[in-house]
Amino acid sequence: MAAETDTGAIEDFGQVSRTVGTVFRYLLLAATMFGIVMLAVLLLYVANDAIRPLTADPGWYLAFFLALVAPTGIAGWAVRRRDPAALTFGTFLVGMLVVSLMFSGGVALLVIDVVPPLVALAFAIGLAVPIGATVGLTRYAHRISFTLRLAATTAVFYLSLFGLPGPIGDAVGAPPIVPSLVALVQSVPVIPVDWMMVAAVVGGGSAAAIGTYVASVGDGSAGLYAAGVALAASAAAGAAGPLVGVDSVPAVVITAVALVPTTAYAWRGGFTEEGSPLGLVFAATVVVGALVGAAAVDVLGFAGPQSWVDWGFLTSAHSGTAENAGLYPAIGGSILLMTTVAALSFPVGVGAAVYLEEYAGDNALTRFVDVNISNLAGVPSVVYGLLGLGVFVTYLGRSAGTVLVGGATLALLILPIVIISAREAIRSVPSDMRQASYGMGATRWQTVKNVVLPEAFPGILTGTILALGRAIGETAPLIMIGAPNVVFNLPTALGSKVSAMPLQVYAWSSLFASEDFYTKAVPAGVVVLLAVLLAMNSVAIVLRNKFERTQ
Amino acid sequence: MSTDELTTDITTQTENSPRELLTRTFFFLCAALSIVTTISIVALLVTEAARFFSLTAPLLGVTGPTASIVDFLTGTSWNINGGEFGVLTLVSATVMITLGSAVIAIPLGVATAIYLSEYASERARSLLKPALEILAGVPTVVYGFFALIYITPALSVVFPSIGTFNMLSASIVVGIMIIPMVASISEDAMSAVPDELRQAGYGMGATKFDVATGIVVPAALSGIFSSFILALSRAIGETMAVTIAAGSRAQFLNPVNPASFLEGSLPMTAAMVQLLLGDITGGGLAYRSLFAIGLVLFVITLVMNVISDFVAQRYREEY
Amino acid sequence: MSQNSTNKQNRNERAERDESADPTADGMDIQTDVSGSVAASAGGSPTRETVVSAKHISVWYGDDQALSDITMDIPERSVTAMVGPSGCGKSTFLRCINRMNDLIDSARVEGDLYLRGKNVYDDDVDPVALRRRVGMVFQKPNPFPKSIYDNVTYGLKIQDKGGDYDEIVEESLKRAALWDEVKDQLGESGLELSGGQQQRLCIARAIAPDPEVLLMDEPASALDPVATSQIEDLIEELAEDYTVVIVTHNMQQAARISDQTAVFLTGGELVEFDDTQKIFENPESQRVEDYITGKFG
């Protein structure tokens, strides 16, 4: 080529064929999308079977399109043009409302059917008093030695929860001398009505959380003020609920768990300096649109889809006919199991992670534990089920299929995952922070408590929620420990038999295998299970994003 | 400050204060629990399996029916009521599921990893990675239902002779389930390939295709292999999807004969569930057979995890 | 308030002197500058007690020797600077004084180091308790993600010390010349301050528990020139009450603020340790002279 040109310059670099590369690239993309598309199609099928969107009147769709979809689209477009961050905030606010409404459903289920309000109140008071005493003790008397403080704390909790001499006395047959605070509250002759007690427990808890949140953003008095408003709102909902046709107890729970936190978040995002009211406009469009749409179809008499996922499905128990079968005991069982699993696996998992990252040196034992944990993460879940069956049921003689045995088995199952993610979160705490703390003469525990854990907490929480998401979908270990396939009542104690959502879905698709169950109850169960999982995972992802941004 | 006072101060032992001892002990016990779990699993599986076999049962004082260890490991028929415990029957079904899911997950997973690591834009990655995580996050009982209700009927259009319960649909869903595992571990390995290697390739005039297939994949090969082994070990331990979709009738199938994928059989994990749902009395032969299968399953997955760790360790040393 | 006004006076004096020193950074100017500050403290120097006394300290990280056979005495209430090229072991030596090296698994220390006559490498010394008596300020400002108030009281809290925290916070922040800037925002996060303010907060945090010795590991290297000069002023003031040991790679800084200078050279060797004036005007060793005049290093 060069010989043909007089100047000796290269005229042409030639062409390298890109055809193979392009084909390869699109093949890769297709492979990447295969699983995702396949799952999407399957999800569409199951959602179609469960919700049956084609059974609705066209007018129903039109009404919701006009009231909800079109305004949301327009508002979203307009808000995005002005301020994309406001759209994110508004979407997040709507998402928070939906997720917190689901969560309040779970809490309502607990206070209505599992824990009687009086017992809940008694335990809330029985815990709040010693916690208050302990906080006061550490705040106003920081010179008291640790041993004394520990003894005082233990004593005040024991007295409040068990009285004197309590279970230790029972064991030796001593008569009770001082009743516990819990028993005292329960023996009060005049008790308030249920919703007031629920407002005190759930509303109080929510108010405390809101107060702390506001205080951390603004100052202490604003926090106190916000907590007062939140508590008053919960109580007011209980009084006003019956007037608009909602029972008092659910009204209190929904207000305390869903409406108050969402409002607090909306207020902070909409009216403080860094927020923008535009996001609120978007969120309001969605919420008002949904309400208007619902009112319109009601007035105009358009029938919605004949969904199998309906109120009856969520609130009734199993039945021999698919139309009447419901998921209520399984939902309650899953909630109780998750609470037990979280209570067991969180402290132990974080403790193990702290030991491995902050205490253990680099020696053979640590490396062995390290390898051991990664291998435990790979042990099939059915083997964990065998462990639960063999150790808890057969050797320790616990009765099969209870909340406690199921929760403990699932906790062991997710423990390696919790440990691994907690270790990652702890490792991401900058080492300057530790250096600063050790340089001040802090001990290991002081460094862990004051510096490492507060910094790593969001990461640990994210990892734990994702691990709980794994546990909530597990079926095999529950079958192994003998959880019953059909439960008609909610478990009310740690020793009650428990079912769970995936177990119920399995029972319907195997033991009650019939066309009827395949097309009605099972798809509905799958949709509910996936919705709960989606809600949990999105909470975890939101937390993770927030965490990564602040890092 | 006087010297004596200072000496007293700096010789105060903080390490052994009750607070430090208590917290250190608590954290240590938490970490030790993982070892206790492993020991419990091994001890439980080994003792119960030992009580199952005729060879070892008398040593543990077990009377009553037992099974021959030779028949267990070599028999090709599984029938509890008939006293036939040939675990190979179950293993053959498990091997089929594993092979079938490997055929799906390995090419798709590696292709996904190459795409994510070499081709996808930052934005595409941020959308695709969570989407792939969802594949692994869907409960396996849901996958089993999908296989039984949607995939099998669709397959019967192509293969009219397919059974209601069949290995093919179970393999497909298990394959989809483990794609993210292959993809994410392989992608980690590919991302760990130093950029200089890629630059060197481009500097020689290689196309992106040449670099991806000729430089990145070979350099990340051990990581990719380690992902295969780990994902297949997951497929072997997978329970609910195969329990629902693969059937309940144990029969010995030839894993390398494609036609046998259209039939149903009973993989190890499904057999365990079936045993549990049947009427097993605590301590009976069926109960003990459960632990014998569990032991086989545990050993297989453990060995695979260890191999995968070993392979992954080797590639980590290279950079 | 009275202390505050003294601070300001001092600062003005320093500013004037810095102005004269800064435009030309050659050897002559530094020497004239230094002669002033050494002369001011020379009177007290013979009577000063030794606070930190190192005897044959050697440190290894794994098989690599980081310090070899260091012996030196550091007098109280003065600024002792450690200079030398990077990797010469000056920071390692600093970390021997409060046993921060104990936190590194591979580190091994030999020799003795006395703090007011007590060997800190004795078996009965708890490194954690030792660090409560020896404050440390790090290269990069590292306040905790807590409020300014909580940052300053951290040392008191972990030592279960009582006392009027409000007063101690005010006192420490005043000494760190930060009080006026933050007195209205004590509840806000320490991370919201500027880099220079963060480093002064770290100094306030270090002096709040009233340590015996204050160690500073290149405290100004991550800061801009204005913040650096503030920190330098502060160090000289702190030397009235504390024994300050500072590591720096900046020769002018060592000349400006220190009373004694130790020169470490490659291989973890202490080549010369003397009054700063002597080191910069008339070093014994040719290698030190080469290093100071920039021929090497």
From TrEMBL, chain B:
GO terms for biological process: phosphate ion transport. InterPro entries: MetI-like, MetI-like_sf, Phosphate_PstC. This is Phosphate transport system permease protein. GO terms for cellular component: plasma membrane. CDD domains: TM_PBP2 (cd06261). It is found in: Cell membrane; Membrane. It comes from the Archaea. It comes from Halobellus rarus. Pfam families: BPD_transp_1. Gene3D superfamilies: MetI-like (1.10.3720.10). The chain crosses the membrane at residues 26-45, 52-73, 85-110, 131-151, 157-182, 211-232, 285-307.
